[in-house]
Amino acid sequence: MLSGLSWPSLAVLMALGIALDLLLGEARRWHPLVGFGNLAKRIEGALNHAAALRLRGVLAWCLAVVPPVLACAWLIALLPGWLGALVHAALLYFCIGLRSLREHTLPIARALAQGDLPLARRLTSYIVSRDTRESSEGELAKAGVESLLENGNDAVFGTLFWFLVAGGPGALLFRLANTLDAMWGYRNARFLYFGWSAARIDDVLNWLPARLTAYSYAWLGQRRQALDCWKAQAPAWSSPNAGPVMAAGAGALGLALGGPAIYDGEVEERPPLGRGLPAQGPDIVRAWRLVAMSTALWLAVVCAVALLGLAIGAGAPHA
Predict the structure, then answer these.
(1) pTM over 0.90
(2) How many H-runs (helices) and E-runs (strands) does the chain carry?
(3) Where are the bilayer-spanning segments (predicted)?
(4) How many CB atoms lie within 10 A of CB 187?
(5) Is the pLDDT of residue 319 over 60?
(6) Are 196 and 57 within 8 A, CB to CB?
(7) What mean pLDDT comes out for the span 157-166?
(8) What is the share, in percent, of the chain residues with pLDDT greater than 70?
(9) φ/ψ bin of 31: left (φ > 0), alpha (ψ from -120 to 50), beta (otherwise)
């Protein structure tokens, strides 16, 4: 492990970070990621101009991400063992967004259940970039389910994966890289070259977590259909990581997602995802449960590996 933590320590600290997130939710004031976003805006404003924009984008990414990650790793190394361990758990808490997913999506399901379409449209507009002003109940439900499935990887499982690889600094590295992709990774005139490195680095960091997420969704849902949808539909999706996650998740839930959506006033024909019935309000709750159960599955696997390691260590002969 790059973190230097044992599997038992990782299991305990991972459980603690998840518990803190579910108990406390996102910090309402002085959230580190908000401060990071403001820093990223300043760096982009200073460097996103003139020639050689890809090189400027690489420099900007390094200036934004490397110092805080190295600072946290240095702090952990400097502190006594148990204090350093708490910093690992605190970093995971600040980086993971499981409760945030629930708080941003389940109110949409409640609004739809109450027939309050204007409220559901407004709530959905907070979590997706598509135009929701004229969206129907089915379109809003589809947007909510898709957001849950995709952000389950970005806000939860990618963070957990890199926490297991490199502890708190690993979780921070992933979350900051993912944040920069969300801010700079657009294929438009402003970010086509400057944001190239942010998008590519996020793709690399997300490649394995996304596929583990897709397998998790498949394992806990309609497994064969999820794997078939992943194989057949993911290659048509523009994102190399969102495709497997969303196709497998839609197949696992037995839902037909994807298809047309309105962006900037124009209809975009997106490839199909999944197979089955169109999404409805209650399916948002089903998607949340799939993400929550997948989180429990990851934690259970880590705990099982930790217990196995302890058992092997206890049974090994002593010199």
Answers:
(1) yes
(2) 12, 3
(3) 6-24, 58-76, 296-316
(4) 10
(5) no
(6) yes
(7) 97
(8) 98
(9) beta
